[in-house]
């Protein structure tokens, strides 16, 4: 759905162009405001003709939030021009309004209040009134309502509610023009005294109805207090969908109420009324107060909707009416969700989708989820093979065969490779963005997954040739040709492995984001909140199984065979993703580019997690999560529309971060905490890999060991994330996580130090195991719990800064430090012991930072 480029506005308003910005999707639309004068109407007629030619006669719908003075004329205009309309505007001559619309057999939803909850309350009162008329006989009624000082009329909602209450009581309450007995508050002082918050003085609707028995011994009070406009925008979205469906049935035009809309929803007559509205649409309407005209495209819905159905758009902007062409039903570019906050009570139960399992959306999401799981499985295979080859003595950076030093080392180039991952990811993102722009999401994902597969397979073939060359040449000081040949082959294989390492780590994250972007685009936020955890669980199972199989696969296929198998998994993943896109295309809900929209986001959504040094995708710095997506919606509604604009306009990200940290010190502390934890993560990973290489010289065995190790990490973090942490968080205060993580690491690194020489692999791998498991499970939940307590702007920018800078900075800083150390000292055992000692210091600094973060959280809670 799209906003139309033209909108009607008040006759006294200058014709102008406004830009309507959607905070959620980041998209903007320009809307030309045309005053509702005779001249203006000529322009509107011309625009209508153009829109109908472009989008189809039935694909236009009006949303009217204008002025009480305009109600009657506007309604006749819409009815005579065969424009179905949703009218929220109150006032005017209501009886005439109903007559005018009904007699013209026009389609409309007209309601003085679009807030679904308020409408449900009204319906309840009506029911009580019809069931128990007069049950409050003798009770006196008092009504106070407060609105922004600019509101021209008496609350239409109050009038409607009073008409129901007057069926219950015999009070002679007067609701005449001008308000009658209603106590109308329209000045800021009275509104504040009535409980309205200062920020909502410009837009609120507070209502209190009090019924008091004649002797004053019994008092009933009914309140509905709304700040902002989101609740109306949401209801309007439902009304639009409902009306589009009614039009499509071919029935005669009728005037519906919001109770009709609610009842239709309750009876599930059509699918997913809110879900099918785009976030853009809802936000645009949220920001609005005016009349909107919108257009829509045809779509075949998944269930219960006739193929003829058309859907229409919501439109609206500051006090105007808009014409809106619609292209896609779904927002694209939703940030990839990460599982966290599994204990979120808002998750609730209920079916996964409001769709039947055979519906195209269910099928397409299932295929994409499988594609994601196979992609992660392929990554596990590739990681095990690449790490073992990277540190191998023949093809890799070890010192065995080539230098004749008898096996060992192999990690000196690793920090540099890790340091190259972030810059390479940025280039890749740019490249991906271009492909996306040229071919759209489906072909971009296909092309890049196949590139990824081809690189694994081609590298495997090249490494096999180089390995044979190395085996053929016997390094012998006297045979200068053979020495040169070995050196040349090693140079090539090392360069290839270096590139493969960087490439593989950058690519896995990028493609993983694309899978989630598709899933996030196809599912509504409500469905997503239920489906993300099982989908992430499927991914977890894929990677755990693959990692667990590495050991037996490597025995059968060898390391290069493992690379080929990884390549084959990526091909399969591409195929499944293609089927997912194909199904979406067939169902008419394929995420695709939209004119003027910020669709590059589809491919450039922020990283859902990060890739550790040889690690899997983790959610340490996840920008969003299913639960946060929900809460994002919630707080976005609380936030002033311009707050996000400030986020974008406030200079470069470093400047924004400085300003933000000064304003929200808890985010500054979180930033430091993330930097230190990422430094430690890289360091203990390096120590673990060093120990692994020095204890297991055989490449195949090393790959097998590391596969099993990662299978345990994946498995344990999955169990923690899905089962243990939600349980624990019921009994322990969440902010203790911040202290728990570094304390555990202080113990683990001290243990590694004490046992470094004696305990073999166990001591070194324990630290890495602990930090990785926490990163995959606890970290995301901890971050989200902190973000959720912040205001919208802090959360939006905080996530951006922390995920973009803190995580990468921590890793890159450690990579640079380790690279320098390797150049100066090499891989000496003593140096490694120093590194373990340093890891204790880093863990201690992390603990100190966490303590300050913890006390800031405590202080803000108080
Ligand atoms: N049903 C519901 O749930 C809700 C209804 N409303 C109603 O919506 C109406 C507007 O409320 P606000 O946005 O607060 O008022 P507002 O005064 O901020 O905006 C009204 C806009 O309508 C424009 N306008 C005036 N005459 C027009 C015309 N002939 N054609 C097109 N546009 C015209 C004005 O230029 C102004 O920008 C009120 O009647 C209010 O009671 C508001 C919120 C919720
Ligand atoms: O003007 C408003 O703001 C509102 N108007 C409607 C009304 O008059 O009832 C609905 C809600 O009160 C907000």
Automatic annotation (TrEMBL):
Q: Which reaction does it catalyse?
A: (S)-2,3,4,5-tetrahydrodipicolinate + NAD(+) + H2O = (2S,4S)-4-hydroxy-2,3,4,5-tetrahydrodipicolinate + NADH + H(+); (S)-2,3,4,5-tetrahydrodipicolinate + NADP(+) + H2O = (2S,4S)-4-hydroxy-2,3,4,5-tetrahydrodipicolinate + NADPH + H(+)
Under InterPro entries, the record lists: ADP_ATP_car_bac_type, DapB_C, DapB_N, DHDPR_bac, MFS_trans_sf, NAD(P)-bd_dom_sf
Q: Does the keyword tRNA-binding apply?
A: no
| Pfam families reported in the protein's UniProt record | DapB_C, DapB_N, TLC
Query: Keywords assigned by UniProt?
Result: Amino-acid biosynthesis, ATP-binding, Diaminopimelate biosynthesis, Lysine biosynthesis, Membrane, NAD, NADP, Nucleotide-binding, Oxidoreductase, Transmembrane, Transmembrane helix, Transport
Give positions of region: Disordered. 588-637
One record GO biological process? diaminopimelate biosynthetic process
Q: Domain Dihydrodipicolinate reductase C-terminal, which positions?
A: 120-262
GO molecular function term, any single one: ATP binding
Domain Dihydrodipicolinate reductase N-terminal span(s) in chain numbering: 30-114
| Topology versus the membrane | Multi-pass membrane protein
Q: Where are the transmembrane segments?
A: 411-433, 496-512, 532-550, 557-581, 666-688, 709-729, 801-825, 831-853
Which residue stretches does the UniProt record annotate as biased composition, category Polar residues? 618-630
> For bias kind Basic and acidic residues, which ranges apply?
590-602
Q: Where in the cell is it found?
A: Membrane
Any one Gene Ontology cellular component term annotated for this protein: membrane
Q: Which pathway is this protein assigned to?
A: Amino-acid biosynthesis; L-lysine biosynthesis via DAP pathway; (S)-tetrahydrodipicolinate from L-aspartate: step 4/4
* Keyword Ribosomal protein assigned: no
Q: Which family does it belong to?
A: Belongs to the DapB family. Belongs to the ADP/ATP translocase tlc family.
Q: What is this protein called?
A: ADP,ATP carrier protein
Q: Source organism lineage? A: Eukaryota, Sar, Stramenopiles, Ochrophyta, Bacillariophyta
């Amino acid at each position: 759905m799209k906003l139309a480029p033209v909108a009607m506005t008040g006759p006294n308003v200058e014709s102008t162009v406004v830009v309507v910005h959607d905070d959620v999707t980041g998209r903007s639309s320009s809307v030309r405001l045309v005053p509702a004068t005779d001249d203006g109407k000529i322009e509107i007629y011309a625009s209508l003709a153009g829109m109908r030619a472009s989008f189809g006669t039935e694909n236009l719908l009006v949303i009217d939030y204008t002025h009480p003075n305009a109600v009657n004329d506007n309604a006749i205009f819409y009815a005579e021009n065969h424009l179905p309309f949703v009218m929220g505007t109150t006032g005017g001559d209501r009886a005439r309004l109903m007559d005018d619309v009904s007699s013209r057999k026009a389609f409309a939803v007209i309601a003085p209040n679009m807030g679904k909850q308020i409408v449900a309350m009204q319906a309840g009162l009506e029911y009580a009134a019809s069931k128990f008329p007069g049950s409050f006989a003798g009770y006196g009624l008092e009504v106070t309502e407060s609105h922004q000082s600019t509101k021209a009329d008496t609350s239409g909602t109050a009038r409607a509610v009073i008409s129901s209450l007057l069926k219950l009581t015999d009070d002679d309450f007067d609701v005449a023009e001008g308000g009658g007995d209603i106590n109308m508050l329209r000045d800021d002082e009275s509104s504040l005294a009535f409980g309205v918050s200062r920020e909502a003085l410009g837009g609120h609707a507070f209502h209190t109805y009090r019924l008091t028995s004649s002797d004053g011994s019994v008092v009933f009070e009914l309140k509905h207090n709304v700040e902002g406009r989101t609740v109306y925008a949401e209801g309007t979205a439902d009304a639009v969908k409902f009306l589009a469906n009614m039009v499509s049935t071919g029935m005669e035009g009728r005037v519906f109420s919001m109770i009709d809309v609610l009842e239709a929803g309750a009876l599930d007559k059509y699918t997913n009324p809110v879900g099918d509205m785009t976030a853009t649409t809802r936000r645009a309407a949220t920001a609005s107060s005016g009349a909107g005209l919108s257009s829509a495209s045809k779509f075949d819905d998944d269930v219960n909707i006739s193929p003829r159905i058309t859907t229409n758009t919501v439109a609206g902007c500051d006090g105007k009416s808009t014409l809106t062409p619609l292209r896609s039903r779904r927002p694209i570019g939703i940030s990839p969700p990460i599982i966290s906050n599994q204990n979120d009570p808002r998750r609730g139960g209920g079916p996964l989708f409001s769709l039947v399992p055979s519906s195209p959306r269910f099928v397409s999401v299932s295929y994409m989820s499988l594609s994601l799981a196979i992609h992660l499985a392929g990554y596990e295979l590739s990681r095990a093979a690449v790490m073992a080859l990277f540190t191998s003595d023949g093809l890799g950076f070890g010192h065995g065969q080539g230098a004749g030093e008898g096996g060992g080392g192999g990690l000196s180039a690793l920090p540099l490779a890790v340091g190259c991952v972030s810059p390479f990811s940025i280039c890749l993102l740019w490249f991906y963005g271009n492909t996306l722009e040229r071919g759209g999401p489906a072909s971009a994902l296909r092309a890049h997954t196949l590139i990824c597969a081809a690189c694994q397979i081609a590298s495997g073939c090249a490494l096999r040739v180089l390995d044979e060359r190395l085996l053929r040449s016997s390094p012998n000081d006297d045979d200068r040709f053979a020495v040169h040949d070995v050196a040349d082959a090693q140079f090539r294989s090392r360069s290839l492995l270096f590139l493969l390492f960087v490439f593989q780590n950058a690519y896995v994250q990028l493609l993983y984001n694309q899978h989630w972007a598709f899933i996030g685009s196809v599912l509504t936020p409500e469905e997503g909140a239920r489906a993300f955890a099982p989908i992430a669980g499927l991914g977890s199972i894929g990677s755990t199984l693959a990692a667990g199989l590495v050991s037996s696969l490597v025995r059968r296929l060898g390391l290069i065979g493992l690379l080929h198998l990884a390549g084959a998994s990526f091909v399969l993943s591409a195929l499944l993703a293609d089927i997912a896109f194909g199904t979406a295309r067939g169902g008419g809900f394929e995420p695709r580019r939209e004119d003027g929209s910020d669709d590059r986001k589809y491919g450039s959504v922020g990283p859902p997690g990060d890739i550790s040094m040889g690690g899997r995708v983790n959610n340490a710095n996840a920008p969003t999560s299913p639960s946060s997506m929900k809460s994002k919606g919630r707080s976005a509604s609380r936030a002033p529309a311009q707050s996000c604009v400030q986020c974008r306009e406030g200079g470069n990200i470093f400047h924004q971060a400085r300003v933000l940290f000064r304003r929200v010190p808890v985010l500054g502390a979180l930033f430091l905490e993330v930097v230190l934890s990422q430094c430690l993560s890289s360091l203990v990973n390096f120590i673990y890999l060093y120990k692994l290489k020095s204890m297991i010289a055989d490449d195949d065995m090393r790959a097998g060991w590391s596969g099993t190790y990662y299978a345990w990490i994946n498995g344990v973090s999955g169990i923690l994330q899905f089962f243990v942490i939600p349980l624990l968080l019921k009994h322990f205060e969440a902010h203790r996580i911040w202290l728990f993580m570094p304390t555990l690491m202080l113990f683990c690194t001290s243990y590694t130090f004490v046992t470094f020489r004696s305990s073999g692999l166990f001591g070194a791998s324990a630290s890495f195991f602990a930090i990785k498991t926490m990163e995959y499970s606890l970290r995301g939940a901890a971050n989200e719990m902190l973000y959720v307590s912040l205001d919208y702007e802090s959360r939006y920018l905080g996530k951006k800064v922390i995920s973009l800078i803190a995580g990468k900075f921590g890793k890159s800083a450690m990579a640079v430090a380790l690279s320098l150390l390797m150049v100066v000292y090499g891989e000496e055992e003593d140096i490694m012991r120093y590194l373990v000692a340093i890891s204790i210091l880093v863990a201690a600094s992390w603990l100190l930072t966490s303590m300050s973060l913890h006390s800031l959280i405590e202080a803000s809670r108080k």
